[in-house]
Design brief:
It contains 9 helices and 12 strands. It is an alpha+beta fold and 448 residues long. The chain folds into 2 domains: 172 residues, no CATH class; 162 residues, Heat Shock Protein 90 (2-Layer Sandwich). The longest helix has 74 residues. The protein is elongated, with a radius of gyration of 47 Å. About 2% of the residues have low confidence.
C-alpha cells in the first residue's frame, strides 16, 4: 500500500513537473511571439499614420480650396481627427467634430508644439518647405494619440494643421491578441497536463507492474519457503518425541529432504535476483553444442528408463561450428526442460532431444548461425492461453502436477538464461499431444 501511494504521488509530481516545464517553455515562446506581433502592429500603425500625414500635407500643398466632404472623408476613412488653420484661424471643418474634450486636447497639442518645437500654428511664419513635427500625447482618459502638427506656406496664405491619430484601435488589437494568446496557452497547458497524466501513467505502468510482480514474487517465495520449513519444524518436534531409532531416522530423512528442497529454492531465488539486477554470473566461451546435448542426454537417460519413457537424441549429420555460450548455464537450461518433460510425461511415453543448425548470410562477410535446441514429449499439452504465462515466476498450469519438488521457477529461470545469451525460447504443441520446448542461440560470424 505504501509503495502504491508513493507511485501515485510520483505520478502527480511528475505530471505537474512536466506540465510546468513544458508550460513555461510555451509561455516564453508565446511572449516572444507576442512581442514580435505587437511590434508589427505598432509599426503598421505608425506606417499608416505617416502615410496619412504625408497625404494631408500633399493635399494642402496642391489644393487651393478644401471642402467639408474631403475633411470628413479623411477623418472617417482613416479614423483620425484633422484640424485645419488658415493663417492661424480655425476653419469650419474643425468645428464639425469639435468637443470640449477635443478642444482641450488640441490646445495642449498647440502649446506643446510651441514650447517644444517652437511651432506656433496660430501665428505661422512663412516657409518655403512644409514644417511639421510628430509626437505622442495622452488625453485625460488615458487614450494615446499619434500627433502631427505643421504648417504649409502658399502664395497668399499659410495653412496649419493638427492631426490626431487615436491609438485605441491599436490598443484593442493588442489586448484582443493578448487575451487570445492567453486563452490558447490556458487550453494548451490543460491539454499538456492531461497528456502528461496519460504519458506518465504509461511510463509508470512497467514500474507498477514490476511492483505487483515483486509483491507476488515475495508472497509466492514466502509460501514456498514456509512449506519445507513447516515440515522441518514438525519433523524435528516429532523426532524429539520419537520412541525408536527407526522413527528418529525417518524424521531425520524428512528434515534432510526438505532442507535440500529449501536449498534448491533459495538457489533459484538467488539466480533470479542476480538476473533482475543484471549480475547473473556468465562464463561465455567456445563450446560444442552437440556435446552439450549429449551430456544432457546421458544425465537423464537413467531417469527416463526408470519411468519407462523412451528417450532419444537426434543430432545434425554435418560437423557443427563452435558456439559462444556458457556451457554450465546451457546444461542447466536443458536440465530444466528435461526435468519438466519427465514430470509431465506419463510412464510409457516418449521424449526426444534434438538440435538443428542453420546459416543465413546477412552481408558479404557476415553470417548468422542459429543453434536450435528442442525438447519434445508426448505428455500433457499446454493450452494456447497459457503458453506465455508458463514462463512467469511461480506460475503453474491448471493441469500441472502437484509434485512438491517443483516451485514454478524452472521455466522462468530457463527464460532468464536464454535472455542472458540474447536468444529466444518458446513452446509449441506436439502433434498427437504433448509439448515441444525450443530455444535458439543466435550468433553473428564474420569471415576474413
Amino acid at each position: 500500500m505504501k509503495d502504491q501511494t508513493i507511485i501515485k504521488k510520483l505520478h502527480v509530481q511528475l505530471s505537474f513537473f512536466l506540465t510546468s516545464v513544458t508550460g513555461t517553455i510555451l509561455i516564453i515562446l508565446t511572449l516572444f511571439c507576442l512581442f514580435i506581433s505587437e511590434s508589427g502592429i505598432r509599426k503598421n500603425t505608425l506606417y499608416s499614420f505617416r502615410n496619412e500625414r504625408d497625404a494631408i500635407i500633399t493635399h494642402l500643398q496642391t489644393q487651393t480650396s478644401f471642402s467639408l466632404q474631403w475633411i470628413n472623408q479623411v477623418q472617417e476613412n482613416n479614423r483620425l481627427y484633422l484640424y485645419l488653420y488658415d493663417n492661424g484661424m480655425p476653419i469650419l471643418g474643425a468645428r464639425l467634430y469639435s468637443t470640449q474634450k477635443k478642444d482641450a486636447l488640441v490646445s495642449d497639442v498647440l502649446a506643446y508644439a510651441k514650447s517644444k518645437h517652437h511651432l506656433d500654428i496660430t501665428k505661422p511664419a512663412y516657409s518655403v518647405l512644409p514644417i511639421y513635427y510628430d509626437f505622442t500625447i495622452t488625453d485625460t482618459d488615458d487614450t494615446s494619440y499619434f500627433v502631427s502638427a505643421g504648417v504649409v506656406s502658399k502664395e497668399k496664405n499659410t495653412l496649419g494643421y493638427v492631426m490626431l491619430y487615436p491609438l485605441s484601435r491599436q490598443s484593442r488589437q493588442i489586448v484582443t491578441q493578448r487575451i487570445l494568446f492567453a486563452g490558447v496557452d490556458a487550453v494548451a497547458v490543460c491539454l499538456l497536463f492531461l497528456f502528461s497524466r496519460i504519458f506518465i501513467q504509461k511510463m509508470l505502468r512497467p514500474l507498477e507492474e514490476n511492483r505487483k510482480n515483486q509483491i507476488h514474487f515475495t508472497a509466492s517465495a514466502s509460501h514456498e519457503l514456509r512449506a519445507p520449513l513447516a515440515v522441518i519444524l514438525s519433523s524435528a518436534e516429532a523426532m524429539r518425541k520419537a520412541d525408536t531409532q527407526r522413527e528418529q531416522l525417518h524424521f531425520l530423512q524428512m528434515i534432510q529432504s526438505e532442507g535440500v528442497r529449501m536449498q534448491r529454492l533459495i538457489a533459484d531465488l538467488l539466480l533470479l535476483t542476480h538476473s533482475d539486477s543484471g549480475t547473473l554470473p556468465m562464463h561465455v566461451a567456445d563450446c560444442q553444442p552437440d556435446l552439450l546435448l549429449i551430456d544432457a542426454y546421458e544425465k537423464y537417460e537413467l531417469a527416463a528408463a526408470d519411468k519407462q519413457i523412451a528417450f532419444s537424441i537426434q543430432l545434425p549429420k554435418e560437423d557443427l561450428p563452435v558456439c559462444r555460450a556458457d556451457a554450465e548455464r546451457i546444461l542447466q537450461l536443458l536440465s530444466i526442460l528435461l526435468d519438466n518433460a519427465l514430470s509431465y510425461t506419463p510412464n510409457g511415453g516418449a521424449i526426444w532431444l534434438s538440435l538443428d543448425f542453420s546459416v543465413q548470410t546477412v552481408k558479404k562477410f557476415t553470417a548468422v548461425h542459429r543453434f536450435e535446441f528442442r525438447v519434445t514429449d508426448n505428455g500433457v499439452s499446454i493450452p494456447n492461453s497459457q503458453k506465455e504465462l508458463i514462463f512467469e515466476r511461480f506460475y503453474r498450469a491448471q493441469n500441472s502436477h502437484t509434485d512438491k519438488q517443483h516451485f514454478g521457477l524452472g521455466l522462468c529461470i530457463a527464460k532468464e538464461i536464454v535472455n542472458a545469451h540474447h536468444g529466444k525460447i518458446w513452446v509449441e504443441d506436439t502433434p498427437g499431444g504433448g509439448v515441444c520446448f525450443c530455444f535458439q542461440l543466435i550468433q553473428n560470424q564474420t569471415s576474413n
